Amino acid sequence: MIVVKLGGSLIHRAKELVKEIIDYSDTSGQAILIVPGGSVFADTVRKVNASDEASHWMAILAMEQYGYFIADKSKARIVDNIRIEDKGTYILLPYALIKNKDELPHTWDVTSDTIAAWVAHQVGARFIKLTDVDGIFINGELKKELRAQELLGIETCVDSELPRFLIKNKMNCEILNGNCPGRLINALKGNVPGTLIKG
Predict the structure, then answer these.
(1) At the N or C end, where does the chain have fewer CB atoms within 10 A?
(2) Per-residue pLDDT, 194
(3) DSSP bridge pairs for 92
(4) C-alpha to C-alpha distance for 188 and 27, rounded to whole angstroms
(5) Is 126 strand, coil or helix?
(6) CA geometry: angle at 66 spanning 118 and 162, to 5°?
(7) Mean of pLDDT values over 100-124
(8) CB 62 within 8 A of CB 44
């Protein structure tokens, strides 16, 4: 299985990306689980200035709203668990899953990035983060590959908890720009045209 975190920054072409994933899954026989970002729905949570505890669960519910949006009029199947045994494309609504197995810190350091990584870890899947930038930039230079350790304490396109999670669980994360045609399919085929973070 491949877990693809579909960033909220890609809301303007998210449905196109879901279709690309479905087409690839149909032809390859690969099971792909999409974990939605929070997008504009999580932005609203940030604006209301709730406590970290309330914001954590509200933001996960925001992921569910984005999930329904990207699933709308697609052939992807909406699921609320990770017991997936068949090929195809699935979109995860994560609230019930995370509420049942509450292992992540309840702070804004944990966003849909770390939640998606946690999901990938649970199912032993390859983890791809689709976003609106080409990858990780350090001092203005795009890094093709780096260690998660190098990201501790610096601001990048991933949340601040993700590097720690990758290190702890010896996981990798592939980051690529979902705005660039062809990159997603290349990545699904194993050619990462962005940044590989090694945990």
Answers:
(1) N
(2) 94
(3) 79
(4) 12
(5) strand
(6) 25
(7) 96
(8) yes
Residues contacting residue 47 through CB under 8 Å, at least 6 positions apart: none
Phi, psi values for residue 172, rounded to 5°: -110, 155
Question: In a 10 Å sphere around its CB, with 0-12 CB exposed, 13-18 middle and 19+ buried, how is residue 27 labelled?
Answer: exposed
Spatial distance between the Cα atoms of 117 and 110, rounded to a whole number of angstroms: 11
**Reported pTM:** 0.96
Q: Tell me the three state secondary structure of residue 180.
A: coil
CA dihedral 138, 163, 155, 186 (to 10 degrees): 60
Helices (H), 72-148: 95-100, 112-123
Closest to 167 (Cα-Cα) out of 151, 148, 141: 148
Express each pLDDT in 102-112 by its tens digit.
999 999 999 99
